[in-house]
Amino acid sequence: MVALLTGKGVHFCGGVLITDLHVLTAAHCVHYRDNLEPITARLGEYDLSRFNETRAQNFQLVDIQEHPDFSFSTNENDIAVLRLHRRAAFNSYIWPVCLPPPGLDLDRVTAIVAGWGATHYHGLPSPVLMEVAVPVWNLSRCQSRFTQPVLDTALCAGAEEGGRDACRVGIPQRTMNATRSCREHCLASWRREKTWLVEEVARELNDN
Questions:
Q1: Structure pTM?
Q2: Residue ranges of domains in the chain, CATH in brackets
Q3: Alpha carbon separation from 198 to 9, 29, 137, 160, 202 (Å, rounded)
Q4: Tens-of-pLDDT digits for all 208 residues of the chain?
């Protein structure tokens, strides 16, 4: 997990490392922030209330690429790639995730939501990195249960009885298969976003 911090060191969003130079996050997290103050990406973070965690490493951002069709009003294409000022050194606490192949069927898959979000509705954010298992919903079932519009390309996940979900959008979501390997998805994940993400990361890698 990657903790995104304001210039004053306040945590405001989460992300995930996808290469040694790139972080995946939600576009709404950085949409109005890149021109306001510097953003720090902290890798290897666990407890935000402790300032002496030796495993945590801070990185500055040198580029922010939002999806060109991101809509702040609908959260469509809510995805962004951040470029770090230097390459991250991988270790037991800092490691990139696997990106999913095109057309992966996630219906009835159990996903893991991780981050420093609130532990209950309208509650305070957790200072400690947490995770929770949630089932992925069939899209038609998701659309029938929500009062607000749900786009056809959305990925819905949460406990049927409530109480287990992502209290902060932009926190990464992993799907676990039988071999315990993980594949990364955003909470508001769109097919067009995945195509753009692959192209964007490929372009960045070719430039480096």
A1: 0.78
A2: 2-97 (2.40.10.10), 103-192 (2.40.10.10)
A3: 30, 20, 25, 32, 6
A4: 999 999 888 888 999 999 999 999 988 889 876 566 789 999 999 999 887 777 889 999 999 988 888 888 877 888 899 999 999 999 989 999 887 776 777 777 888 888 888 777 777 888 999 888 888 888 788 888 777 777 776 777 777 766 666 653 334 444 444 333 333 443 333 334 444 455 555 555 455 5
